[in-house]
Design brief:
alpha+beta; Alpha-Beta Plaits; Immunoglobulin-like; 3 domains; 5-stranded antiparallel β-sheet; 16 helices; 14 strands; about 35% helix; elongated; binds iron/sulfur cluster
Length: about 475
Amino acid sequence: MATMITDECINCGACEPECPNTAIYQGGVEYDWQGAKRDALSNEIFYIVPEKCTECVGFYDHEACAAVCPVDCCIPNPAIPEAEDILLARAAQIHPDKTFGPDFPSRFKGGNGAAATAGDPAAPAAAAAAPAAATAPAVTPAAKPAAATAPVAVARVGKVEKKAVAPLQRPVPRTVPYRGELPITFDEAREIVSTAAPSGGMHVVPLAVSLLQPILGALPAKTKDRLEAALGDRRVFSSAGATGMNLFVHMVAIPLLFTGFAVFALDDSFFSKTVRPWFFYGVLAAIAEAVFRLRECVLRAKPVSEAVYRGALYGPLLIPLVTPLLRKANAHTEENREAFEGYYGPTTAFDDKRERERRYGEVYTIEERPSGWLFRLELPRRIPPSGVKHELGLGDEMPDYDLTMTLEGNVFVVHGKVVDPRLRTIAATAPAFPPDFTTRIPLAERCLGFVQRCESKVVEAVLVKQSAASRLRALSDAA
Ligand code: SF4
Ligand code: SF4
């Protein structure tokens, strides 16, 4: 039977170039038949001219249009049952210059034809009609079947199976470590690089910051967060710890200040009846300040991790004290960002641009820690749009890249490549899709090695500085 297109067609046009008989036309476009133009069989959706359709007999072992249709709306037309020899005769008529040998491809020879016939209520009629039809002349356009003249909604019968698409090839899992990869876990490496190397005692600056925490806790919340990141060691300075110490100091200092003010203003003794209540007022003021600064935790019972560690009124005056340390912190993190011109806000264009940069290995951050670096690189998530992708029946999800990481002197190098040959074919035709990328990260000093992991399209690496050698040794000794 001829193939037909149901009204589920979404007009994607994928089927049209697949037809070996040019039997498929866009809705509203006249079709050619026997040297003349004929009116379109549908004005809304793509349509198949039954007189030209051979169900691909003579060319493929399946219906080529059905194999590419994304919504499975190319189906056998139950109103036009036709046997294989009829269809082959039609193919010979349409292609007089072509010879069809005894081994001509046909869906009737494979599982498709059998499956289609089995589920088709018109099959017995088709079988019965076949001998007669073999001798009958081909159907003429004048006798257009009613079912083909307009978009139709029909029950699915004899659904054509799509050609199976082989899954995308993924990289072979590594059995040997990369050159320079350290035999410790990712978390162990991150712990090592996040703390400064011991050098016979604390350095002067961290020690001073640590001792000044009760005062520095008065700094504004953002400044404290940046300072914590700059020092990279919560034992030296932590936003939460410093704020707590500062509030504790205020619990003592504010009542004493209030009392001192009363002594001075009322010109009375420290323990007199008129001055004593001022100590109490001071305690109340200190409590009110603590509640105000930690209001998320105290009033809304939020967990400590979500608290904002606000500073004291005089906190901004302390910022110049820590500015040199903050400058250093700013130099610690480098982010390789694509140009943002024209891409402000969460627009699709911005997403596309970021995805494009990922294909070049250019979306990464490198963050310096006291004893190393934390590196994070985003890998592409989607196969870029391409006609070839559609033809090959590939989905959208990009498979994992085959990665190689190495240290070349002071440079950390990440090389990624797509392994599936079909993806490499797409890369050859699609714009901005290199099949390989190499990202080179120059480091300020040599590293002992690195530890890496790749999860959810993100590569992370911890690069350990030479200053952490003793801790690394201690870790391997303990193991
Ligand atoms: S089944 Fe084959 S011959 Fe018929 S319309 Fe589809 S692609 Fe063309
Ligand atoms: S491939 Fe399917 S949906 Fe696309 S135009 Fe052809 S029949 Fe319509």
